Automatic annotation (TrEMBL):
The lineage of its organism: Bacteria, Bacillati, Actinomycetota, Actinomycetes, Micromonosporales. InterPro entries: GntR_C, TF_FadR/GntR_C, Tscrpt_reg_HTH_GntR, WH-like_DNA-bd_sf, WH_DNA-bd_sf. Transmembrane segments: none annotated. SUPFAM superfamilies: GntR ligand-binding domain-like (SSF48008), Winged helix' DNA-binding domain (SSF46785). GO terms for molecular function: DNA binding; DNA-binding transcription factor activity. This is Transcriptional regulator, GntR family. Keywords: DNA-binding, Transcription, Transcription regulation.
Amino acid sequence: MPPPVDSPTAPPRGHRVRQTIAQLRERILGGEWPVGGRIPTEPQLVAALGVGRNTVREAVRALVHAGVLECRQGSGTYVVSTDELAPVVARRLTDDRMAEVVEVRRAFEVEAARLAALRRTPDDLAALDGALAAREAAWRGGRVDEFVEADAALHVAVVAAAHNGMLAELYASVGAALRSTVAQSMGDALEPERYVDHSRLVEAIRDGDPHRAAIEAGAFLEPPPGA
């Protein structure tokens, strides 16, 4: 018979906690427990995962500390993020660090555009065309919040076309920061002088020109003179 959970002959406690954290993460990333939803109670997790209450408690506490879960008194524990980096970035995002955010965006987006020009597929090009059209429609609609989301979606489509999983994961972690920089640059209204054309970026990717794609991606993220 297998040793009882949390018995002296079971795997070391730290190992069990790490395994339990991995199992919880897997269920969150798999969509079984979506963002905004409540995870099962502690007794239910004990039964489902086959570990002791203390192991479950430590694993949940670790994910709370990481910003993935949130305990709400009298209500339960909820999923607040699928990405441990996103809450860290959000906590560090302040107005006086926006210049750093733009520099990080530029590093990610220039390389993503270069790779996208080399690796894009017909499906990627269709997604880019759709995202570009949605961005243009959002601009014409005149709502800042809708334009910010549409602009972010286009940049995400460029990153997806790069077909680099790690780059996509890291870029997703700065999603909130990305939207903040766009919203800050737009202000309270979509003024004509703030419009930035992204069609040349999409065309460079379509043409398979990595050098031109990188230049186009970096052009609208250049720091102002004297920065």
